[in-house]
Predict the structure.
Amino acid sequence: MKRPTIADVARRAGVSKGAVSYALNGQRGVSEATRQRILAIAAEIGFSPSSAARALSGATAKAVGLALCRPARILGIEPFFMELISGVEAELSARSYALTLQVVADQDAEIAVYRRWWAERRVDGVFVCDLRTEDRRVPALEELQLPAVVIGGPGHTGSLANVWSDEAAALAETVEYLVALGHRRIARVGGLPALLHTEIRSDAFTEVCGRLGLDESVTVWSDYTGEEGARATRRLLSSPNRPTAVIYDNDVMAIAGLSVAQEMGLQVPGDLSIVAWDDSPLCQLVHPPLTALGRDIPAYGAHAARQLLRVIAGEPTGGLQDETAHLTPRGSTAPPRVR
Amino acid sequence: MKRPTIADVARRAGVSKGAVSYALNGQRGVSEATRQRILAIAAEIGFSPSSAARALSGATAKAVGLALCRPARILGIEPFFMELISGVEAELSARSYALTLQVVADQDAEIAVYRRWWAERRVDGVFVCDLRTEDRRVPALEELQLPAVVIGGPGHTGSLANVWSDEAAALAETVEYLVALGHRRIARVGGLPALLHTEIRSDAFTEVCGRLGLDESVTVWSDYTGEEGARATRRLLSSPNRPTAVIYDNDVMAIAGLSVAQEMGLQVPGDLSIVAWDDSPLCQLVHPPLTALGRDIPAYGAHAARQLLRVIAGEPTGGLQDETAHLTPRGSTAPPRVR
DNA sequence: CTGAAAGCGCTTACAG
DNA sequence: CTGAAAGCGCTTACAG
């Protein structure tokens, strides 16, 4: 089946190829009546302009890129990324932009992908996830002048636009809630320490614990996997002065932690309260359902996409603060049982 | 920063653009020494051929498409898709192919996306997921002559190539294992009935239960969500002659089912054995860990990608059978407690 | 083995 | 408001 070209449309409409181009792109240069006739013919013969030809003529590629730097099993189990992608996609496809996805092994590979995409003119811009405090991707993208939006922050984004959520405030709210329930020994199982948002949460945890005089608070580090979350929980619950509440940096580790508590014969929430960051349907699958910090991740992705299209269009764009995660109390938190 | 073009490389190397093209694409027409010199210069100035120009010149777009027809929250919670994508991606990027992702609302929208991709020459081929018994996408793709690989089957794929796994055998093995443990009343919580693989599993379930004389077997339908899985489980466990074992069509429903059993005061596995399809890290997060049917999903994706590249290359390609899921017994299955 | 040239299908100044 | 034409950066027959 031969694909229709702009020449086919022009011939049928009895106009020049230029006129068809103007009509399709909503440019002035054709009368409204002609435009309508051209659009009708294009629809009739199923014409869509070749993205290659369009990109080559200096117009945009109508595609943006997302590189993900996580192993397959983590990508699979974390609902976060797929929800983010869904939201990004919804916004992009409404504007006829395609999303190009690439899984990379490390930052160097990711930067190489950006360079290739740029050289190939394959994308008009990119999203940057999992920002680090010293992130080499930021200067690399600045040097390429490839439009980019960082999904994260605030801070450490150089001259790049970003969308972010106030993680410090969400963490403080959580600790205050646990203290209000009567907890004093609160632990936190953190995610990868190299990630900026982990650092932001850690600093906030230290700050709020200091402010509230919780001198037995402790943070242990993990990597977002269930295995590590379970191990960290075992360590915490084996200490002589074990915590009465644990805040986990993601849902997967929280569920693993719940399982460990049950395995060690502890009642949740009687002996141990559990809070999960990243509220997802997973949190309501377990028994008891987990108290969790959640926000609308597809919307976050949609906002990032809108922001990136703005950068690509050359509009002035800076940082955009998204909603702060809110706490949904469920069965996994309660006042500590007196021992 | 100006992007280097093939002309820049040609000028530096003192050869024609054609020679550079031949050198880059491994074609005959340049001496080996010249080829090496050209490649070195290309690497030095960071040249990658414009994908747009390349696609326009009749070469391939070096991109393939994947349309996903599931709502955001299901995509997020099912590890299957992200693991599949990881595997697809690994294979594609090794061959310098990009993956274009689009989330669609229904089959009509998906077909429209295929038509647009085809008209735009945006992709060289596509993957088809979630095959149905009467699937309109198959004739649509045949008509477009857009290279495609169905991830699913066997059967109902028309003239399209496919990769598939023997779900019937895996189901039979599971039922036989439960019967060997002493179970006679086995129930199944199925996924969406419109999907071919659900039908294949259902037919296999009926067949094996008939063969083994399990006349109290029952299947209830669900939609892969935890909510529906929980509801189906409540219904099953409330019946006077409740099953002693339940097989779930995905991990999420199985975890929800475990939670419902615990909530109803039943011991797992003493009062109820549970088997999950789609073994994923989730199955090991809960207590007890779930006996599950698993296989290597990233590898499945990689095989699908290799198959699609073969179709694109015009090589003869038919159906490719992937490994059959195998049962990993864990703590959620045991002989039924005598009542 | 190498070079000059046509052509892919668009967009966009430039004339009319 | 419309048409003819150049040009984007490649690939690939066609001559030499």
